[in-house]
Every structure is written in structure tokens, then in C-alpha cells.
Amino acid sequence: MKKIIQLLIALLIISTLVLAGCQSAPAPEEPIVEEAAPAAEEAEEEAAEADEPEELGSAVVRFSGWTYDLEKVTDNIENYKSWVATDAVPPVQAEIEWSDSGYGEFDTHVTTTNAAGSQFDVLYGSDHWLAKWAAAGWVLPLEDYWPGVTDYISDIDQYSVDAMTYEGKLYGLPYYTDAMYFFYNTKMLEDAGIAAPPATWAEVTEQSLVLMEKGITDTPLMLGLSASSWFDELFYALVYSEGGTVFDDDLNVAFDTSSGPAYDVIEYLASALNDDQVMPQSVLEMTAVDVQEAFKAGDAAFVVVSGYMVRELNLPDISSVAGYAEVALMPGATHETDGYSRMYLLGSGAVEDEAKLQASIHLIEFMGGQTTFEGVEAYHVAKRWAVDNGLGFSVQSLWDDPAVNEAFSLMADKDIMQAQKAIARSKEGIDAPYFSEWISYVRTEVQKAILREITTEDALSNIATYWDDLKSE
Amino acid sequence: MLSTTEKRHLNQTTKLAYRIIGPSLLFVIIFVAIPLVYSLYISTQEFKYGVPTGRGIWFQNYIDIFTKSTVAPGFYSSLEITFKFTIVAVALVMIISFLIALLIEQKFKGSNLIKVALLLPYAIPGAVSAVIWNWIYDPNFGVLNGLLYTLGFIEKYFSISSNPDLAIWGILFAYVWKIVPYSTFLFSAGLSTIPTSVYEAAKLDRSGPFRTLSKIIIPMLMPVIQMVLVIQTIFALVLHFGLIFVITQGGPGDSTRTLAWHIYKETFTFTRFGRGAAMAVILSLIMVIFIYVYLVVLNPERALKRKQKRLEKEAIQSV
Question: How much is the ipTM here?
Fold first, then answer.
């Protein structure tokens, strides 16, 4: 019995294999009778064949960014993967290898990765790193590999386009763009009997002293003066607020070392810290994020923070000053501020093969551009960041979106924020590849001047000399 | 003149010795010697944005470090801070760890528990301990401020890491706390090799504790002291880096910009790999000088020879 069953199983397997291998014999070819097809139909068929996107296969894209809302980043990546496989032209089966590091260490992260011989395919970038990375060949001009990207320029704020351009070529699409804003606590001012927010830095000090005198707060003014990347945005914002200029169009030093806006700003900070003591010494270890937390905790009356941080200031669940945080134009002679851009860039690793290149370009397109996803054409990712996180954007047409308008209206006075952004200026000097090295030096020198370890004149002189030295190399 | 048998035995012993130290030697060659030589090579190369240009510039990086107006002041400043930090750190570590070793060598109830507890600072990973100390020093909610305020030593919370006069002391204190256990156990091991008969003899001679320590224990412990001094100097020159990275980032101003931090900034922030490598070579040379000085000055045999010469001189003079 056992043998019979074994025989039957063997027969079953063999017959299955035989049937699987069998193919019907091809039918004899019928003689082809050529018909004279109309020329238009032929042309249409050829065009249809050309339009059909060529299958590129699969690719693994090494995507790197800094650590911010990784849950949302992961979700965006999943959406991209389903979009790129079906709706992108040409479609690609893409997998993403994501890596991240803290924002403060991101430049180091990119530097060490590339210096070690590895590359990224797509990465976040910032306006003050672009020139260096582009000069080093770590990122590629996006418009050389995707000519259509220049169509976006007309819909993006000019300062953002400038920030993403190096040597006349567009390198990326915006991740988010923002400016530094001056915020104040309305309740503290009301309790102190102050009718309006300060319009000059001298008024900031005057009002701070009143707040301290009345026991409302010991630390009325807080600015993130830690020697980190946030310092750069703040320093430029303060200099611009007084109508200052740092470099001219030829990248020559344009500030005076013994007078003028840059000098006045550093002197003001030194005075606020040491003489009037309206600023606590702990500001030297605070970033803009720490300042935001201090404002939310009700410690400070006046802060300068990035626009995206503003969203949390008025949320009741996490801010003890919810409802009392309001924006005012940056105090100073001209009220200007620093505007900055973070962007998606094409890494040098993307050109490894065609599938990877297309997958990488599509990733930038999906993250920073306008795509049709789930039947809707929109700047999906940029809108999501704006509505959910309050991240600023430079795509002008996004302001037409009701959800975006509503989200920003809840944060603060939208009109003032828009007016402030309209007079935001991108950091002068970022076109130079040595800008990031120079600004790192500036942080230390300005801190020393604020601490009165050296004079402001010496600090500015050292800063100017350092720039000239780097430029001459 | 060695006999054939003796020569053969010596050969075999030598071969055995090389076989035993071979793996360690290989480790040192691969992870120390080769990187050092490569660093020397990099220090003579030109780099632009982290990419070698292929152009050798010989000792230009070294010349820039010592003479260029935009480089030299920062280098000398970091050198000064490093020397001050190292001298104070080594002194504190040596004294504190020696005293603790003396204490734990006394047999009393709970001495073994103290020995285990002492290991804790060293067992905590460097980055973790740096974060812990950053929290301890926090000017808003730090334990240090809370304790001092509660005990009435301060009227207002203050900042350590943003105070240029206090920041380096904050780093120093955190560093000493972390590194003391290592030396303590080395001293403890050294003390345990001193026979009890020595202490008994000292007692019989009515030698007081201080005299016993200075005339008997310390001289007998000199090889261990020498070794600990060398190790602690090397540690102090570089191992504080994690603390600076987390707590002060070289600031405020440049008050905690030690040479180790300076090398990191030059290499990884400014992507000046050549100049960073040159500074690292200079730091290595500084270590070598320190070690040489210790080995020569603290050499027990040399000390003994000096003592003999002095005694001979005194004997001749007395005649």
C-alpha cells in the first residue's frame, strides 16, 4: 500500500513538471499583407510608444537629514515610495535608506561621510552650507539633471531661490524657509503698564528694566547666543534690524569695525548682559530652541526665535503663556531680519546609475515640489509641514491654501509675520564656500566681545581679517 | 661569551617572547603606528573642503599653526588652556586617587562595598556622564544650583557653563570625578604589593604615618606612580573632549577651547584635515615630551644613582 501511494505521488510530480514545461506549438505565420496605414495613425502610435515610460527597475536612495519629527519624515517617505512606483514619470521601485543627525552636527555629518569616501543621494541642506558642499562636489546642480526644476522658480520667494543657487545654478527645492521674529509676552507688558511693544533695541532695554523693577521677571530678554548654528541666524537678524550690511556683492567686508550697525549690535548685547543685566548669562549656552522653551515657561518677555517655533508659543497644552505670545516687527532702525532656507539637495551619489538618479530626483520632487498624489495635485509635503508643524515656506502659491492660511493665523498676527518676512534678507556671504568656516569663527569672537574679554573693535577687526584671509586662499 | 647551548636557549626565549607579544605588537602597529604615520602624511598635504588636492605642502601647515595671524593666536590660546587643564587635572587625580587608595587599603567594615561604589563613575560611558554633568550644571534646574541654594551658599541660581571663569572648572571637576577610580585601582594594586612586614618594621622603628608614607611607601610605589602619571597625563590631554562637546562646545568665548577641541573644529567643522592632522601631531609630540620627562626625572634607578653620588660627595667632603 505504501509503495502504491509513493508511486502515485511520483507520477503526480512528474506529470506536473511535464505539463508546466509544455508549450503549444507556435501557429504557422500567416503571410503578412501590408496595408497602407494612414500617416497620422502611424505617427500617433509612435508617439504613444515614446510616451510610455521606460521601466527603470529598482534603486536604493541614501537620504539624510537632521533629526526633526522623524515620524512625519518616515510617513512622507512611505508616501513617496508608493507614489514613485506608480505615478512618477518614469516610475522607479525605490527603497530609502534614511540617516539623520542633530542639526548642529549635520554639516560635520555630511563632511565626514563624504571625506570617508561615501556619498548621499539626497540630503537636507541649508543656505549657509550649500556653497561649501557644492564647491567640494558633494552636491550636484539639480537643474543639470532635471531641467524642468527651473519652472518652480517663478513660484518661490526670490531670497529662497538665491539661497538655493550657487554659481548661477539651482541646486535644490525648498524644505522650509523661515525668518527670525521678535516675540513678546503681552500679559507681562500689560501688567507693567507698557502700552506697546518696543520699536528699538534701546526701548527693549527700557521696557526690560521696568519689568525687572516691578518684579514681573528677572530675565526679561533672552536671545540664543550659544555658539551654534542658531547664533548665525540671530546675529544676522540683529545686524539687519539696524539696516546693517555685512558683505557687498563682490564678497568684500562691508561693516565698519569701530562704528555702525554691526558694532552697535555687539555693544548692545554686551551692555544688556553686563551693564543693564536684562539678559541672564545663561543665554551664552542657549540656542533659539532653548529660548523658545524659556518663553513658553514664562521666564522671558522678549525673545527672537525662528518662525516655526512660534506655533508652540500659543498652544495651551505645552505653553504656560498660551494666548499671550505676540509678534512685533524686529526692533531696530529698519526692522529687517534674517531669512534663511533649508532645502533638499541632490547628492553626488545619485549619479551611480539611471534608476538611482531618477529615484533621487523624484524624491526631491515629491518632498519639495508639486505632485499628484492620491488624485490631488499639490505641494503635499510642504503643505503638511506648514499646517501640522507651522514650518515656513517660500512657495508663494501655498498662501492660497485655506488650511495653510488658517494654521498660520492661529500662530500669531499673520499680517505682521508676512510683513516681517517681506523685508527678510538672506545672509550675505553665503555664496562663498568658506562662509561656514568664517561664521563659526564669528560666533567665538562675538561671544568674547559680549563677555568683554576683547573689545568690540578687536572682535570685528579679527572677523574681517579672517574673512579676507579665507578669501585670499 | 655565551656557550652554544646558552645562545640556543636565548634564541628560543627571544622567539617565544616575540610570539607572546606579537598580537599586541600587531595591534599597536595597525591601530597606533600606521594611523600616526598616516597623520604625519596628511599633515603635509593640502586639503580643500575636505578633499585632498594632491598637492604636497611639506611643513606649511605647521608654519601656519605657529605663525599665521589668523591661526596662531587661537592655537597658542588652546595650548595654554590645555596645559593649565592638564597640570591641575593630573595633580588632582593623583592626589585624590592616592588618598582614596590608601583609605580603601585599610580593612574596615564596608571597605569592599566602597571599592565597588568607586567603580561607578568609571563604568558610566563618557557621553552619558557628560550629559549627566550638563544637567547637574544647568542654570535653571541643575542639582548643583539647587543644593547650593538650599544650603544658603547662593542667593540666586548661576550658570557654570556660560561663565568664562567657571566653565573650565566645571569641565575639570566632571573630568576628575570620572577618571579618579581608574588611578585609584592602580594605586590600590600597587599598595597591595607592599609586604605587611614593611609596615611592621616601620612601626617598630616608631616611624609616624607621615614619615612611613614619605620615606617608605612612596619610594616603594615609585614605579606605579610613574606609570599612573604617564597615563593620567595622556588622558588629561585628550579624554576631556566628550565633556567639552556636550557641555560647553569650547565656549563661552574660547574659555574651554582645549587643543583636543581645537583639533576637532579644524578637522571636522572647517574640513582642514591637513592642519588638524598637524595639530594632532603636535599634541602627540607634547605627550611624548611629558612621558620622557617623567621617565627620566622619576626614574627610580636614576634617583638611586643621584643619591649615591650625593652620599659619596658628602663622604669625600667630610674627609
Answer: 0.82
